[in-house]
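Morning. Coffee machine broken again, so started the prediction first thing and wrote up yesterday's gels while waiting. Chain of 601 residues, entered below exactly as on the submission form.
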Amino acid sequence: MIRTPLRPLARILRARETGEDPDAIEAENRARRHAEIQDKARRRARGRLLVMAGAFLVAFGTVGVRMGALASSDPSEPRAQATGAQIISQRADIVDRRGRVLATNLSTHALYAHPQQMVDPERAARELAKIFPDLDRERLTRNFTGKRSFVWVKKKLSPEQMQAVHDIGEPGLLFGPREMRLYPNGHLASHILGGSTFGAEGVSSAEVLGMAGVEKAFDRWLRDPANAGAPLTLSIDLTAQSAMEEVLSNGMRVMNAKGAAAVLMEVRTGEILAMASLPDFDPNDRPRALTKGDASDSPLFNRVVQGQYELGSTFKIFPVVQAMNERLVNPNTLINASSPMKIGKYLIHDFHNYGRSLSVADIIAKSSNVGTVRIAQMLGAERQRDFLQKLGFFEPTPIEMAEAPTGKPLVPTRWPAVTAATVAFGHGLAASPLHLAAAYATIANDGRKVRPTLVHRREHPQGEVVLSEAAAAAGRKLLRQVVTRGTAKAAEVEGYDVAGKTGTADKPRRGGGYHDNKVVSTFASMYPSDRPEYVLVVTLDEPSVRTASGVAARTAGATAAPVAAELVRRLSPIMGLRRQGDEALPVIGNRPAVDLKLVAN
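Came back before lunch.
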């Protein structure tokens, strides 16, 4: 703003020339300035009054409209509402293929404290330590007597514990309702389900999140309100799962094994009916993960999916069926089996000296390393590698579990002649039992690749053709001979025509080389052999059983094969598969009536 001077120089000079009084000029200008200031203040005051009048008009109008709306509405009780983001606590159930509950929700309460409202905080800490032995009394006392205004005490309470806390009579101890995840079958299918934990928490609700297994893999789906509470239906059968875990546990104990794994899969659909890894855990009280040492020592370790084992002679069927598919051999083709066989500076031996030659059928039945390597050499390293890749041995299995990506096979980076030889009889490439089950299912499924799944569906997409039907059928016949006259005689189950292959592999040392007295024994099978419906794989970690002569036996034929036989006996009737030649079993509901009592083997 430009201010007009009270005594402008030009006018003052002119006034002096004409004899006028300069002070009169200053007085005139001062009066004019004061008049302008008053006019401006008057306009500002008038504007403020108009704004205030408008504000009062709007405020009283709003109040009047609201009062009118309340007067015309029906009376209702006021409701308190917590501030903050809403916590989605509802989680869908998980059920087996027959609708039986595997995981559900349970209404419970959490316990928290307002120390500033406590009458006797030291007594409260002392009584809580009696009710909950896992709580630290001294720490509770510090929390209750310090400056904290809020303290979580327990996230989950049983009704008995809640009543005991209530009996303390401390006004500063408060309860908040919430839902917790409940696994009513305890240890059963623990590795499949995985377990859960709390996410976002409030005093009146808590978010339940999946920690592992299908709970984590389907976490978003299980929490999606758009599903309207529909349960997640898994492919497993609860009765078959229970029987598998019982038989496998007994077999692990009898065979003095460190761990055990088994999987039963439908050939046509790839649906997993039962899958067990031992030792296991209770997902209701999930243990902490190991921070050091061998991960496989933890009960959380899923040997079926995460275990990376050299699966030994179970691999021998792969180069054989591939060679038959390429029409390089047939079951009667004679192969040079002279032992030892030299590749570079390495010697390959057979467990027994089988003579100068063996038929392809005898190579599988007698489990000849040398004969298998000769067939693999006919294929060449590149074709052998491509075939194993098509079977899925180079990538993690597509199973719907959070642990699946961690189960990627350990594949050699280079594939020279010696690697091609050792991989042919199951050494140098480490994969999971589930990889092996999927590959055997491909042979059982007339050469069409099978995708393992834990979800029960009506439709399943067909996989690519990896083998011809003729080669797959010939391979099944060779595997049947392993049970009837070869290394897996202990796996024979009358009426079910089991076909399979044993595999015993020395365990690798951490620093390199292999243990002399520690093995992983595996039996991979399918049945009935003429038209397989199921694939069963059993793996025992470090088994050792005393024979009648007192010698420690560790081979798969003496350890994994008899456990697999007992599983076939127990699981087949449960799944409605009757023995050949038997009359149909009486049906109760939608399954045959069977005796589930374990027969000690």
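The chain has two domains: 94-233, 238-281+303-592. Going to sketch it on the whiteboard this afternoon.
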